[in-house]
Design brief:
The complex is a heterodimer of chains A (about 110) and B (about 650). By secondary structure, chain A is mostly beta strands. Chain A has strands at about 1-10, 15-20, 25-35, 40-45, 60-65, 65-70, 75-85, 95-105. Chain A has a single domain (about 1-45, about 60-105), classed as Immunoglobulin-like, CATH 2.60.40.2020. Chain A has a 4-stranded mixed beta sheet, with no helix packed on it. Chain A has a 3-stranded antiparallel beta sheet with strand order 2-6-4, with no helix packed on it. Classes of the chains: A mainly beta (about 110), B alpha+beta (about 650).
Chain lengths: ~110, ~650
């Protein structure tokens, strides 16, 4: 599992892309520990690149990525655990995991 | 009776009329014997136009396999298959005064569900694409598997990895099912033992015998409007669809999916991607499609989902159908034994191929064209000159070659194969025991790829001798086992039992009883004695593992066995999913010297038997879905 240590000052933002695997049934979920009110989390769906096809012909499979943004609100520490999995398979290892250790300073 | 009503209406729509006995004048249905027009009370008219049944029936269903199945299952009247199915013209009385029919010919059924239809399962097991963008390959393969099952009455397992990696895709590659089907059209689609699916980005390295173990398909069909899609589902089979995935689709249970605006009071629903699945049915009452997904069987309803019509662009695009699949010999290898099999030849890819003895210790190739009206038997050339009894034939994964093993006049075994590329019969020589005294059982087994050839035959010391060939190398002697064996026959089966698949065999002992033997291929490969059954048997038994009770492509089906005794054929079967006891539900035929082959072919799970008669002629018998045995053609001299 990848771990990122992030230091932010109040008002700063930290953004990164979460790779979509929706056509495989995989979605991103996150849990947060520590002082959750010290950050705000915004998740934005990015416009997918859908190949244009002739009239009525179905397009190729595609996935929708997400932009995950942290906004530092107030001083604190949070641990954010992101995992990419099939939600109906809780016992299976996630396909991808990411741990964010976020330190927010004044 | 509903389908019979449809038939009546279709006749009417074709401006056909008919006469029936007065007592059927006001019925909604016509009994099958009235349609034949030969019973007293039916008035045949010389002026009446002849009706092309193929044309008529195809208006109700243009899937010839489906028509047979309906007849076989008693859903359509049993107007003898040969007259009805493949376009022969039956004489049917016409009568303009007949009342207008009721019902909806041409209108698709209100509900279709191929997961279980007419009491049979038709859809292969749910798969898991894991984290790759390979749903397009999974939907295409699911379509091929379903159509082989529907058209040829046999479970078929294909590899999503074969098309995925064969096309050069990696885990991240996106694609479309139409492209996958196009690739399959050009290259065929192999089974997982040839090349498996994996989400790892490995090189494409199928086994060397891939050309002989692929299902072949023609061009797929684009189906435009909803009505046509339902008609296709009703009369032909499943269809592939594209679908926009939203996050709430992941949590679908047994309900009908309709996209929600919010996941929960604070979380908006999000668009996740575009996805391919197989539609296996629909329900107009509930207003939904039934889809087979590729997200393992913990998703939805055991891997299936119900999606409301029009939801998430499911009806925005063309859908994809497929017909006229041509299954590989690996798929059908358990479905025949003895001197006949069903090959991929013929327009409908289901000709019977038979090899029999001929005068001068020769072998004659016979074949029945099952795509032609009347199912004519054709004589091929004779070859070899040392054949002592009807050969046992298989179709191997070596380019779908026909491979024969037979006992020679010199008490050896002889292997000959028909090279499909040249049409020539190639002699690979004699092998095996020097004291052969029975008919060989012969299979291509699960061991290695290409699968080993395995032979078990009775020897003069009243034992059974096992010989095997690895790849294309020489034959090896296995063990001799058993005692007091009187007869061996074409009864060796590579079964579905356990992970490696047991070998199963039935022979006849000196007491005139049949004895079941099985080799545990998961443990120590020792031969074990099974049940003893039957009495007064003096001819070789012929056995297959059929499709009855096999719930999916990995499941074991019943053993079906036919053996001649007292001038008749005894049909035995073992309930492999139940008490595993042998039963003898039917005895049929006359003047029978021995059973030389047993096939469960494309005809709606019918059993097909070839017998050698006491007058040395070969004759065909078959059992329909109602479990009634019928006497078929006398084919010719053995």
């Amino acid at each position: 599992m990848e771990t990122r240590k992030i230091q932010l000052c109040q008002g700063e933002k930290y953004s990164f892309k979460l790779k979509g695997r929706g056509s495989a049934g995989y979605s991103w979920q996150h849990t947060i520990e520590g002082t959750p009110d010290s950050v705000e989390i915004l998740i934005k769906t990015l416009s997918p690149k859908v190949k244009k096809t002739e009239d009525k012909m179905p397009p190729p499979t595609y996935n929708v990525d997400q932009l995950f943004t942290l906004i530092a609100k107030r001083k604190g520490h949070v641990k954010i655990h992101l995992l990419n999995h099939q939600s109906w398979e809780p016992k299976k290892e996630p396909l991808e995991e990411l741990m964010l250790l976020v330190d927010i300073k004044e | 009776m509903v389908k019979i009503k449809l038939l009546r209406k279709t006749l009417k729509e074709n401006k056909a009329t008919w006469s029936v006995h007065e007592r059927f004048k006001d019925t909604d249905w016509i009994p099958k014997y009235a349609l034949g027009g030969s019973k007293e009370g039916l008035k045949l008219s010389a002026e009446a136009p002849r009706i092309d049944f193929k044309k008529i029936i195809h208006k109700t269903s243009n899937n010839p396999y489906l028509i047979e199945r309906c007849i076989s299952l008693g859903i359509l009247p049993d107007i003898t298959k040969k007259d009805l199915i493949l376009g022969s013209k039956a004489t049917l009385e016409t009568e303009p005064s007949e009342a207008p029919p009721t019902g909806g010919a041409g209108t698709p059924a209100t509900t279709v569900d191929w997961r279980k239809r007419w009491g049979w399962p038709w859809i292969t097991s749910i798969r898991n694409q894991n984290g790759c963008n390979s749903c397009w390959a999974f939907a295409a393969v699911a379509l091929v598997e379903a159509m082989v099952r529907i058209e040829h009455a046999v479970w078929c397992e294909r590899s999503e990895g074969d098309v995925h990696k064969g096309m050069g895709a990696v885990c991240a590659s996106t694609g479309g099912s139409a492209n996958a089907l196009e690739w399959i059209k050009n290259n065929g689609i192999a089974d997982p033992d040839c090349f498996p699916y994996t989400h790892a980005d490995i090189a494409y390295t199928p086994t060397a015998d891939r050309p002989g173990r692929t299902v072949k398909i023609p061009q797929h069909t684009w189906i435009g409007n909803i009505s046509d899609q339902k008609t296709w589902l009703d009369t032909i089979g499943p269809i592939v669809t594209f679908f926009e995935v939203w996050k709430d689709f992941y949590t679908l249970g047994s309900g009908v999916y309709k996209k929600q605006t919010m996941i929960d009071p604070t979380t908006p629903n999000t668009h996740e991607g575009g996805h391919y699945m197989l539609i296996v049915g629909y329900d107009d009452n509930g207003g939904y499609w039934i889809v087979k997904n590729s997200w393992n069987n913990n998703w939805g309803q055991n891997g299936y989902g119900l999606i409301a019509y029009g939801e998430c662009d499911i009806d925005k695009y063309l859908k994809i159908g497929l017909q006229y699949t041509n299954p590989d010999p690996w798929t059908k290898r358990r479905m025949h034994n003895g001197n006949m099999l069903e090959s991929g030849y013929g327009t409908l890819h289901r000709n019977f191929e038979m090899v029999s003895t001929a005068s001068g210790n020769k072998i004659r190739h016979w074949w029945r064209d099952n795509s032609t009206s009347g199912f004519p038997w054709n004589q091929g050339p004779t070859f070899m000159n040392d054949c002592a009894a009807c050969p046992t034939i298989i179709e191997s994964t070596y380019n779908r070659n026909f491979e024969l093993i037979y006992p020679t006049t010199n008490n050896r075994l002889h292997h000959v194969f028909r090279q499909q590329s040249s049409g020539q019969w190639i002699d690979t020589g004699v092998f095996g025991p020097t004291d052969v005294a029975g008919i060989p059982g012969f299979i291509q087994s699960n061991y290695n790829a290409p699968g080993n050839f395995e032979v078990v035959v009775r020897t003069a010391d009243s034992k059974l001798a096992h010989w095997y060939r690895i790849g294309g190398s020489s034959w090896h002697e296995g063990i001799r086992f058993g005692n007091n064996i009187a007869l061996s026959g074409p009864s060796l089966v590579q079964s579905h039992y356990f992970s490696k698949g047991n070998f199963e065999l039935v022979c006849v002992t000196n007491t005139g009883k049949m004895q079941h033997w099985w080799r545990n291929n998961d443990k120590n490969m020792t031969w074990n004695q099974g049940a003893i059954f039957g009495n007064n048997i003096g001819t070789p038994p012929c056995m297959i593992e059929g499709q009855y009770f096999a719930q999916d492509e990995t499941d074991v089906g019943n053993f079906e066995l036919c053996v001649a005794a007292g001038g008749k054929v005894q049909h035995w079967w073992r309930h492999n999913k139940g008490d595993q006891k042998w039963r003898n539900p039917a005895t049929f035929g006359h003047d029978i010297a021995s059973v030389v082959s047993l096939v469960q072919g494309s005809y709606g799970f019918n059993l097909e038997v070839i017998v050698l008669r006491t007058d040395n002629k070969l004759q065909h018998y078959y059992r329909t879905g109602q479990h009634t045995w019928h006497e078929g053609q006398i084919i010719g001299n053995a």
